[in-house]
Amino acid sequence: MDELDDRLRTATGDRLAYDGRRGELVVRPADADTAVAAAGEQRIAVSRQAVRNALQTALLAADPAPAADDALSAGALALLERYDGDPAGFERLVLRSAAQFHGTAAARRRRGG
What we know:
Blueprint: H1 3-12, E1 16-19, E2 24-27, H2 34-40, E3 42-45, H3 48-61, H4 71-85, H5 87-111
Antiparallel strand pairs: 1-2, 2-3
């Protein structure tokens, strides 16, 4: 288990995770037990940095921001609140954050920076 995965799981009670081997953000429904949660989980293929960007975006959009010990944990809770309120909006936010990150990275490479 890597650091990002561990911190997401700890902050969200194992509902949000990052599968680094597959490059996927994993979210599990709130009302499912562990055996059922695996069947109902949603997986989105995104890079580790794109997940971090999505956490920042969710935290900035949260009103009020969730109380947590650090920004990553607060972002994880905000992203999970987004999922609970609007699963399709959650997926759009994650994919948009990934597209923005990868677009910015590609522009930097083209500029040579």
